[in-house]
Amino acid sequence: MHISLDSFVAGPNGEMDWIKANDEIFDFVGKRISEGDTALYGRVTFQMMESYWPSAGAKPTATKHEIEHSKWYSKVHKLVLSKTLNNDSTRDAELSNTKIISDNLAENINEIKNQPGKDILLFGSPTATHSLIQLNLIDGYWLFVNPIILGRGIPLFVDIKDKIKLNLLTTHQFTCGVTELNYTVDRQ
Predict the structure, then answer these.
(1) How far apart are CA 123 and CA 40, in angstroms?
(2) How many other C-beta atoms are found inside a 10 Å radius of the C-beta of residue 127?
(3) Helix 64-75 to helix 23-33 angle, to the nearest 10 degrees?
(4) The total number of structural domains that make up the chain
(5) Which of 5, 90, 6, 10 is nearest to 44 (CA)?
(6) Domain presence at residue 35
(7) Backbone φ, ψ for residue 6 (5° rounding)
(8) Which of 55, 62, 72, 180 has the fewest C-beta atoms lying within 10 Å of its C-beta?
(9) Which structural domain range is residue 77 located in?
(10) Where does 34-186 have alpha helices with state H?
(11) Element at 25 (helix H, strand E)
(12) Would residue 15 count as lying in a domain?
């Protein structure tokens, strides 16, 4: 997830025009997400992704990143946290490889986490992230700290009841000034 130095994930109105992304970051992220077989989204982020990625790689002007991410997006199992979408048969037919989770969040996520498979990667989705943090369902944080202080906006961390201890796994400095921080949650 991209964050500002003061830990906002978007501006006050959801603006993300401050996020630095380039081929170096896209290649780095592409390698990491290929290790996951499940993508988790909140409804808003999912609808944004669904409106773009299924056909992005097929456009004549598609970049390397768009082609690769479009292929990955079509194959990855998608989980969507939403109280307004549902899993009716019509929606399932329209959204292949997608499961909507609308209730019993902890039970559903833990069931999926306990199944065989690779990593579950959460993309954007600050409201979904807040819910998952509050239920202690996040096992790690993969953050891209952008060299900007927004001062206000949508924060990554809200209503944290207990400390969350982290272990730093890796860091990576990109030439554009973004720093990747990869943490696991210390459950001890």
Answers:
(1) 6
(2) 15
(3) 20
(4) 1
(5) 10
(6) yes
(7) -95, 25
(8) 55
(9) 2-10+20-185
(10) 43-56, 64-75, 89-94, 105-113, 126-134
(11) helix 23-33
(12) no
Give the integer Cα–Cα distance in Å for 115 and 172.
31
Count CA atoms within 13 Å of residue 78 on its CB side: 24
DSSP letter string, 51-81: HHHHHHTTSTT--HHHHHHHHHHHHSEEEEE
CA distance 95 to 128: 20
State pLDDT tens for residues 77-135.
Answer: 999 998 888 655 445 446 778 999 988 889 999 998 888 878 888 887 888 889 899 99
pLDDT, residue 127, reads 85
- Collapsed DSSP state (helix, strand, coil) of residue 45: helix
The model's pTM is 0.87
Residue 150 and residue 6 in contact, taking contact as beta carbons nearer than 8 Å = yes
80 part of a folded domain: yes
- Sequence-separated (6 or more) residues with CB below 8 Å from residue 20: 146, 147, 174, 176, 177, 178
What are the residues whose beta carbons fall under 8 Å from the beta carbon of 19, sequence distance 6 or more? 2, 144, 146
State the CATH number of the domain containing residue 126.
Answer: 3.40.430.10
Residue 185: CA atoms inside 13 Å, Cβ hemisphere, count?
Answer: 12
The pLDDT tens digits for 37-77 are 899 998 888 998 899 888 988 999 999 888 988 998 989 99
User: 50 in a domain, yes or no?
Assistant: yes
